[in-house]
Each structure stands twice: as structure tokens, then as C-alpha cells.
Automatic annotation (TrEMBL):
Entry function: Methylation of the membrane-bound methyl-accepting chemotaxis proteins (MCP) to form gamma-glutamyl methyl ester residues in MCP.
GO molecular function: protein-glutamate O-methyltransferase activity
Gene symbol of the encoding locus: cheR
Official protein name in the record: Chemotaxis protein methyltransferase
Catalytic activity: L-glutamyl-[protein] + S-adenosyl-L-methionine = [protein]-L-glutamate 5-O-methyl ester + S-adenosyl-L-homocysteine
Keywords, sorted A to Z: Methyltransferase, S-adenosyl-L-methionine, Transferase
Organism field: Magnetospirillum molischianum DSM 120
Length: 283
């Protein structure tokens, strides 16, 4: 049988065992993200676009590129392709009610003595989470100009960060923003009724930066609040353990850590106590 000939129809690109294992362990080493065997189809589907863009004929060729001297240029695309970025404005709304009533309103009572507020949205994806935080902050701490308030929004995926920094979304994505906030902080994009734009007031509060949670963190000061929701779920237990202890290191005593609905600190660190469902207070 000659190359390309086969009795059964073959898919255009086949992700073999060896290549899958290589790419999966490369991703884990680089980002902490674990991809188990049942995700092979997903990995293959997402990377096929890269193979086509690079004019490659096989995953072996792609692995050779990553492994080779020019691999660094492709790593960003590889990581961007393999992250899962699902997010939404006002996702898990009880967290924002907790932020408003248990963190921000008490802090407003301490003004003007304590005007510095630092919040980190770690694994912010395309920005819906930090914009939601910004809406709650701007609305609760009015007038926000009197505060030294900043929201650091970080992710490993540069495509998502570009979307966040632009602050433009489809009208459908914007539809989960409650009307009171939408009226004040969101406007239609001129000439495109299917798109909405986050206000400059919100954008001024947020700094979008690329940061790999798996690497050293450059930030100096402490945070009052960290949101890390639906991120650690992709990591293994030892990586989660390290990550949650690092959050304890960068939070002020009494600072809050918000996790996703399927995540928990139980058995992973004793440096937090529970404040509410999936909300933890740094001891
Ligand atoms: C499912 S999204 C969660 C978005 C948002 N926090 C939420 O709950 O709606 C997970 C995000 O974590 C990011 N991520 C995964 N591994 C990361 C790492 N090692 N460093 C930084 N971000 C990472 C992904 O790029 C993705 O955007």
C-alpha cells in the first residue's frame, strides 16, 4: 500500500498516541493544565487550525516545531488554542453580592482612612469577570474617583486579553448584565447594533496583563480580594495546593478568595476559613 492509500477513510490529520502525550505533557509543564486522554479529540480539533495555518501535514511536524529551536514563537499559539475560556458577565452572582455587602460596604465605612483597594481577577479570560467586578466596585464606592482602586485582570491567553482590553462584546454576551448596570456602564457600539462597549469609567479601573499562574508573579503589593474562578479546576491537586498557598501569600489578612462553583480548598490549605459558599477568608 502506498502512502495516503487506506481501506478505511482517514481523517485529514491524525493525532497519534506519542504526539498527544508529548503535547499534553508540554502543556502541563508550561501552564499546569492537565489534559486527560478523553480530551484527545478536543486537542486535535483545536490544533488542526494551527497545522493548517502553518501549512503542515502532520502532528509530528507540529511537535518537531515546538521541540525545535523556533518553537518559542509557536508556544503562545499552542497555549491560546488549548485553554478553555468559557465565561460570562455576572457569572455566579452570589459572589458579587458577597463582594458588595461583605467587602465593599464595610470598606466604604473606613473611608477616608483606607482608600486603597486592590482586586485581582486571576484567569480573567475575555474580561467579563473583571468588568463585572468593576461595575460592582464603581456602583458601591461612589464617587469612585475618591478611591485608589484597581483591578488587575490576568490570563495566560493573549487572544482573550486583547478582547478584554478592547472591552467590546456581542449584545448577546452583554444581555446577562442587569439593566441598572447596563444603563450606567454599557453603551451600544456606534453603527453596530449587535455590539456593546464597556464604559471608560470601567476601563480605567482595570489593568489587563498576561500572567502565567504557573510562573513567578511580579506583583509587589498585597490584594484585598482575589477572584480565581474556574481556573484551578484544570490543574492537578499538587498545583492547586501550591496556587492556593500563593494566594494566601498575596492577600491581606481577612482578604477574600472567590473560587468557582466546582472548586474548594478542603484538604488543600489551612490558611483560609470559609466565609460563604466557595468564598474563603485569608486567616
Ligand atoms: C474557564 S476560564 C474562567 C474565566 C473566569 N474566571 C470565569 O470564571 O468566568 C479559565 C481561564 O483560565 C486561564 N488559564 C488557564 N491556565 C492558566 C495559567 N496557567 N495562567 C493563567 N491563566 C490560565 C485560561 O486561559 C482561561 O481564560
Amino acid at each position: 500500500m502506498t502512502v495516503g492509500e487506506s481501506s478505511a477513510p482517514r481523517r485529514e490529520f491524525e493525532l497519534g498516541d506519542r504526539e498527544f502525550r508529548y503535547l499534553a505533557s508540554f502543556l502541563t509543564r508550561e501552564t499546569g493544565i492537565v489534559v486527560t486522554d478523553h480530551k484527545r479529540q478536543m486537542v486535535s480539533g483545536r490544533l488542526v487550525k494551527r497545522l493548517r495555518a502553518l501549512g503542515m501535514r502532520s502532528f509530528t511536524e507540529y511537535c518537531d516545531l515546538i521541540e525545535g529551536p523556533d518553537g518559542h514563537a509557536e508556544i503562545e499559539n499552542l497555549v491560546n488554542a488549548l485553554t478553555t475560556n468559557i465565561t460570562q458577565f455576572f457569572r455566579e452572582p452570589h459572589h458579587f453580592e458577597h463582594l458588595r455587602t461583605r467587602v465593599l460596604i464595610p470598606r466604604a465605612g473606613e473611608m477616608p482612612r483606607r482608600s486603597r483597594l486592590r482586586i485581582w481577577s486571576a484567569g480573567c479570560s475575555s474580561g467579563q469577570e473583571p468588568y463585572t467586578i468593576a461595575m460592582i466596585v464603581a456602583e458601591t464606592l461612589r464617587p469612585i474617583e475618591g478611591w485608589d482602586a484597581l483591578i488587575l485582570a490576568t490570563d495566560i491567553d493573549t487572544n482573550m486579553l486583547a478582547r478584554g482590553a478592547a472591552g467590546q462584546y456581542s449584545a448577546e454576551e452583554g444581555a446577562t448584565i442587569p439593566e441598572t448596570y447596563r444603563k450606567r456602564y454599557v453603551r451600544r457600539v456606534h453603527g453596530d447594533h449587535d455590539r456593546v462597549q464597556m464604559s471608560d469609567d470601567l476601563r480605567r479601573l482595570i489593568r489587563f496583563r498576561r500572567l502565567n499562574l504557573h510562573e513567578p508573579w511580579p506583583m509587589k503589593g498585597l490584594f484585598d480580594v482575589v477572584f480565581c474562578r474556574n481556573v484551578a479546576i484544570y490543574f492537578d491537586k499538587p498545583t492547586q495546593h501550591r496556587l492556593f498557598n500563593r494566594y494566601a501569600d498575596v492577600l491581606v489578612p481577612g482578604g477574600m478568595l472567590y473560587l468557582g462553583h466546582a472548586e474548594s480548598l478542603i484538604g488543600l490549605t489551612d490558611r483560609f476559613e470559609m466565609s460563604d459558599k466557595t468564598v474563603y477568608r485569608r486567616k
